[in-house]
Amino acid sequence: MKRRKFVKNSGLGAAGIISASLVNSCAEATEKKDAPAAINALKPIVIATWDVPNATAKAWEVLDKGGSALDSVEQGVRMEEADISNQSVGKGGRPDRDGNVTLDACIMDHQGNCGSVVYLQNIVHPVSVARKVMEETPHVMLAGKGAEKFAVEKGFQKENLLTDKSKLEWEKWKETAEYKPIINIENHDTIGMLAIDQAGNLSGACTTSGMAYKIAGRVGDSPIIGAGLFVDNEVGAATATGVGEEVVRTVGSFLIVELMRQGKSPQQACEEGVRRIIEKNKGKLDFQIGFIAINKEGQVGAYCIQPGFTYRTYSSEGHTNTPSMSHIPA
Ligand code: ASP
Question: 190 an active-site residue?
Fold first, then answer.
C-alpha cells in the first residue's frame, strides 16, 4: 500500500483541512458521549449514493417536518424504486442473465433493528418489505419466494418489473454476451441512503436490482447488514455501491462505522474501507466501489475506486451533488 497513492478529485481540495477538524470533533465526541446528539438536534441531514435529487428531496421533506430518519430513508429510496428510468433499482431494474428482475434491499434504524429482503421478484418496493420484516417478524432476512409471499400477505401488489427498455437492452446483451460465471462490470448502481433526524437519530436504507445480467440467484452486498449498510447510533452509518462481492468480503459498511468509532472522520473511514479492498485485489482495479458515511455530528465522507461516483446531500444548508474523491492507481 505504501507505494500506492490516494489522489483526490479537484474541487475537493479543502477536504484535508476539513478532515483534521473532523478527527478532533470525533475525539471530543468520544470523550463526551452526549455531545454529538445535542449538536445533531440542530442539524438533520440526508446523504445518498449517486445523483438522486428526487430521492434526497423526498427524504429531506420527511426530516424537515420532524419525521424520523427511518421514515426519511424509506421514503427517499422508494422514489428511485418507483422510477423506471433508474435501471439499477426497483421497477425498471436490469434483469439477471435469464431475464428476471430480482431485487435486494435492507433498512436499519437507530436502535440496531434491521430488516432485509434478497432475491425478491415482482414487488416494486423491496425497502418497504424489508421494513416489514424488521418490524413485523422475529427475523432479519427473507429471501426469494418466501419474501414475495410475505410481501403479498402484507398487502404489496405483484407486478412485472421488467420494462420494455430493460428487456430490449437485455436481449441486445444476449446477442454478444458470453454466458459464463464471471463478475460483470456492466451497469449497476445501488441507492444507499443515510439520515439523521431532528432528534439526532440515525437510520439507513439500501436498495438495488444488483449487477445487471448476474447469474440467476446471485445476491450482492446491498441487502447484507454490515456489508451494504450499517448504522450505529452512537457513532455513525455507512453504505456502499459497486461490486458487492468486494464489499461483502471486507464487511465494508461495518468496517467504516468501526473506523469512525476509533476516531476516524467519515472521509478517512471511507478511504480506509476502499484501501482494504484495493489491498485485497493487489492492484487490479477494473471495477467500481463507492462508500458514503455520516457520523453522529452530521459530517459526511465519500470515497470510491474509479472516478465517476457522486453523492447527494440535503440539509438545512441546501441540496448538493458532489463528485466523490477517488482512488487513482499510481
Ligand atoms: N452493490 C450492488 C450489488 O453488488 C450493485 C451496485 O451497487 O452497483 O448488487
Answer: yes
Residue 320 lies in a domain: no
Is the overall model pTM greater than 0.85, yes or no? yes
Compute and round to an integer the Cα radius of gyration of the chain.
19
Q: Give one DSSP letter per residue of 118-177, joined into a string.
A: EEE-S-S-HHHHHHHHHHHSS-SEEEHHHHHHHHHHTTPPP-----HHHHHHHHHHHHH-
Q: Is residue 36 part of a domain?
A: yes
Question: pLDDT of 121-177, one tens digit each?
Answer: 999 999 999 999 999 999 999 999 999 999 999 999 999 999 999 999 999 999 988
Domain that holds residue 59: 3-315
Instruction: Give the nearest ligand 1 atom to 219 CA.
Output: 9
Atom of ligand 1 nearest to the CA of 244: 4
53: domain CATH number is: 3.60.20.30
* Residue 322 covered by a domain: no
**In the chain, how many domains are there?**
1
End-to-end CA distance of the chain: 11
240 CA distance to ligand 1 middle (Å): 8
Report the distance separating Cα 270 and Cα 291, nearest Å.
6
Decide if 329 is inside a domain. Answer: no
What spacing in Å lies between the alpha carbon of 84 and ligand 1's midpoint? 18
